[in-house]
Design a protein that fits this description.
The complex is a heterodimer of chains A (253) and B (305). Chain A is α+β, with helices and mostly antiparallel strands and 253 residues long. Chain A has helices at 2-12, 108-111, 114-120, 124-127, 140-153, 213-224, 226-251, and strands at residues 19-25, 29-32, 39-49, 59-66, 69-80, 84-97, 100-104, 134-135, 157-161, 165-167, 171-178, 185-195, 198-211. In chain A, a hairpin with a 3-residue loop joins strand 10 and strand 11 (171-178). Chain A starts with a helix and ends with a helix. Classes of the chains: A alpha+beta (253), B mainly alpha (305). The interface between A and B is large, with 62 and 55 residues.
Chain lengths: 253, 305
Amino acid sequence: MLRFIALMLLIAFPLNAGEEIVADLSQNRVGISATFDGSRILVFGAISRDAPAPDSGPMQVVISVSGPHQPVTIRRKDKRAGIIWVNSASALIDDAPSFYSVATTVPLAQAISVAGDVEYKVSIPRAISSIGTQIATGHAAEFTEALIRIRSGNGLYQVHEGAVELMSETLFRTEIDLPSNLTAGEYTARILITRDQQVVDVFETKLDIHKVGIERWLYTLAHENAMYYGLMSLFIAIAAGWMASAVFSYFKP
Amino acid sequence: MQIYLPIAEISVNAFLLLGLGGMVGILSGMFGVGGGFLMTPLLFFIGIPPAVAVATEANQIVASSFSGVLAHFKRKTVDLKMGGVLLIGGLIGAYMGIQLFNYLRSLGQVDLLVKLSYVVFLGIIGSLMFVESLNAIRRQKKTGTATIRKKHTWLHNLPFKVKFRTSGLYISVIPPFFVGVFVGVLAAIMGVGGGFVMVPAMIYLIGMPTKVVIGTSLFQIIFVTAFTTMMHATTNYTVDIVLAVLLLVGGVIGAQIGTRIGVKMKAEQLRILLALLVLAVCGKLALDLLLQPSELYSLGAGGGH
């Protein structure tokens, strides 16, 4: 059914109807170093046309940046035995972006139709795929809402309606804030332009976010050579303990 | 200055961690305790994931106990034979503790296990210490010093009797072995050295002379926490060396300051203060479990772990 709608939309409003996105990011690589404290990337671009702009509705721009998709377990605490709060019900959402930020020129509902949202997974609830969600106790929506609430609170899910600047329907730009609690991986920046809530063109580019320097070295060692990492940790601890004892016994009579 | 912790994968203020390490170090120097039972809950409060807090704290305790045991070796106040028996039990206990920890982690109940263990043990130890030191102060007012004669109980007459020369004991190895097992389980689950359980057990249950108790328990703690660190590092990948080093630096400096403050205070006053501190941490953790949390939901890594 969805594919059918999409097909009909394509026929009615063919993609690249003379309007194409040309865009880039201020940086394609973000390094998480020891002093990483969040970052900000600029998404900017222009619409190239081989004909004058069509006289249908005004153009809107929707820009999203999403992090690597991972399964997430959401647990709910319930009161047990009348006194104590214990994790009881849980749900596994098998594919949720670790980071998702969407910025638009106008409120999202005005920028894209419901069908378009379903197809392009633009809004946060659509970006989280709860198909195949295993729920032990029913109420999938409650758990998805909790996921969105918690990640929004941590700055990992963001909606910035009206944050994209669009000049003379040609130049656009927005800034996306990356918080310090990012998961490393390959991020995707996507730009959609719409007219009358229908998608006219889509542009995608990759953003590589990775740990650098000692952070990268330690993380890789901890996961790939856990034995050496553990021994190194012990060695550092024993050396530090011995040094502390030596230094302070030197100062003591 | 914010610093990104590579394993915990969060960014924390480095001075906050140094300060926490220093503060707990001062207390551990003052009271002669490892401080793990204070540090691990404090790490929970600042948002370090419990699994990382427990594993990293085990690594930090290796450092502080190693630093402490050297002084005791110089004074010859370590009973190696008794320490060996406690250690064998400790390693077995730690292995069982890790299995339990990983099993409950897969069920999503590890927070509950860790916090409940804290509430129960801090509650018991805190109250016992409080009552004991109040009585000690009262006794001191009546007479000069009170001495407790050590009695042999049925525990000491179990089979496998061994001579422990440094402690001056000829008792069965079964009680120290089980004390070791019990402390090992606690070390793995709670990210503590377990000194706060082992020291009273060594004095009251095993009947060891007080002067060898601290050195011997530190000796056992080094190896048990080293083993726990290795187990957490290889099965859960949760030892954060950057976090451990920051806590260490604050901790060793604080411990030296604390020792100097401790010398100036009376033993009974110190013990009452420590008891109140233990009860305060216990109360805070108990409230977390008993009051309705502001966010009922929590996120964890996806299944299959």
